[in-house]
Amino acid sequence: MKNVPLEVARRFIISKQMLLQSAARGSAQEVVDVVRKLGGVQYDPLPVVEKAHYLTLWNRVKNFKKEVLDGALYKERKMIELVLMRQALHIIPVDELPYYYQAVQSVFRRGWIQRAINNLSKQDVQKIVERIKSDGMVSSKDFPYGKLRALFYKGKIGIAKRKPGIFRMPYYCLLSTLHPHLNLQAVDEDTAQKWLVLKTVSAYGLASARHIGYWIGYKVKETKEILDKLEKEKPVMKVKVVGLNGIHWMTSEDFNKIQERIEKTEKVALLSPMDNLTRDRKWLDKVFGYSFSIEYFQKKGMRWQISILYDTSFVGFIDAKIDRPRRMFIIKELAIHYSAQKDVWIKVARRIVDFARFHRATTISIGTKCPKWFSDLFGKLGYEHKDKLVTIAE
Fold first, then answer.
1. In this structure, what are the phi and psi dihedrals at residue 23, rounded to the nearest 5 degrees?
2. How confident is the model at residue 158 (pLDDT cuts 50, 70, 90)?
3. 3-class SS of residue 95
4. CB atoms near residue 335 (< 10 Å)
5. Residue ranges of the domains in the chain?
6. Confidence (pLDDT) at 326
7. Distance of CA 326 to the CA centre of its chain
8. Number of alpha helices (DSSP H) and beta strands (DSSP E) in the chain
9. Inter-residue contact 331 to 361 (CB < 8 Å)
10. Could you give the dihedral angle defined by the CA atoms of residues 364, 303, 69 and 186, in that order, rounded to the nearest 10 degrees?
11. What is the rounded average pLDDT of the residues 264-282?
12. What pLDDT digit, counting tens, does each position of 200-220 carry?
């Protein structure tokens, strides 16, 4: 079994996750290519800050615009939303849907999705389909949400568009109308499972069976069985990461590249809790020595940590939210994971300004749980700041 130094492994993972260099132009095709390489992007509607799928791409695509992703989804239909990995809503390239769909059927069968499908009667299906054929599309205003979602899980209907607003209610149309040439049965389940495991290994560059299984929703034993099949067929191989317990997996192609020098960068990424890199916090802690607690739909005192990645190191996180009416980006807390040099924090502050502007904010409010020197950084960048309120209007 080959050995891989921990720092080499970290840098390779960050590179494969497309966080060392941004895609250059931000075109629709470039966004599709990034999503393809990542093995899908989770759609999450929680509006504490901008929606998670937008932030995932903002960190990886230079000059990313939300409208480009929306256009690829709802107009050009190069991508599609469907409940897939971990029984969560994901965005993927539409041409890969048969593989994703078949690969997660074992996850569906033992989870709540199958129970929802079982509760859907033939009469329910008939009513919804007839209404769609009559009106073109339907929403939860027309039918109970549970019945629509069950038909959605079955791959019978797809999201045709979303209503403007904070939570962006979906409107559904027949999947056969949205993508008439798409055949969800084009691949068998065994082939699709191997495809998705291989896709996940490639997306991370290097991963344990537990991490791969977590991302997809497979049990560890199930994941190991698929990896063993792939190892016999040669696409993947086992490696030992020096300093970490257990076996890790790489594609054979990537192992031949891992010794290539990946230059240090000064890039700062601000990652939501739903980002592909931070979603599995146990794996994050094991490989990068960094983690955080997560709170979801907590009405009072909710924290929504935006992790700060500098090159390949997590320097801490900000607990942030956006006040949309006042166009104010609020940083309630800065938590420092390790003491970085002053020039690093200057770069972090500059990236936070970019982040706030992506939220269309004109000011940044620095909370009492942030050290004084943190607000002073924005002054050093030339922004007016008074009483911990930084003006960033262009």
1. -60, 145
2. very high
3. helix
4. 16
5. 189-255, 268-391
6. 96
7. 28
8. 17, 15
9. no
10. 170
11. 94
12. 999 999 999 999 999 999 999
Please return the burial class of 47, using the count of CB atoms within 10 Å of its CB with bins 0-12, 13-18 and 19+: middle
96-99: long-range contacts at Cβ-Cβ below 8 A with a sequence spacing of 24 or more? 96/36, 97/179, 97/182, 97/184, 98/182, 98/183, 98/184, 98/185, 98/186, 98/187, 98/192, 99/187, 99/191, 99/192, 99/195, 99/196, 99/199
Distance between CA 183 and CA 2 in Å, rounded?
41
Range 267-290 average pLDDT:
96
Taking CA 122 as the corner, what is the angle to CA 117 and CA 127, rounded to the nearest 5 degrees?
A: 105
Local structure of 391: helix, strand or coil: strand
Dihedral angle sign, alpha carbons of residues 169, 324, 373, 351: positive
d(Cα 163, Cα 166) in Å, to the nearest integer?
A: 9
What CA–CA distance (Å, rounded) separates 64 from 32?
12
Q: Which two tokens stand for residue 380?
A: 């050093």
Cα separations (Å) of 15 from 60, 195, 311?
11, 21, 10
Mention the CATH class of domain 268-391: alpha beta
Q: How far, CA to CA in Å, does 218 sit from each of 31, 84, 223, 375? A: 27, 12, 6, 44
Q: From CA 201, how far away is CA 199, in angstroms rounded?
A: 6
Specify the pLDDT at position 146: 86
Structure token pair of residue 163: 């209503």
Which two three-digit tokens encode residue 118? 């079982």
CATH number corresponding to 189-255: 1.10.10.10
Place of tokens 């629709």: 28
Confidence of residue 5 (pLDDT cuts 50, 70, 90): very high
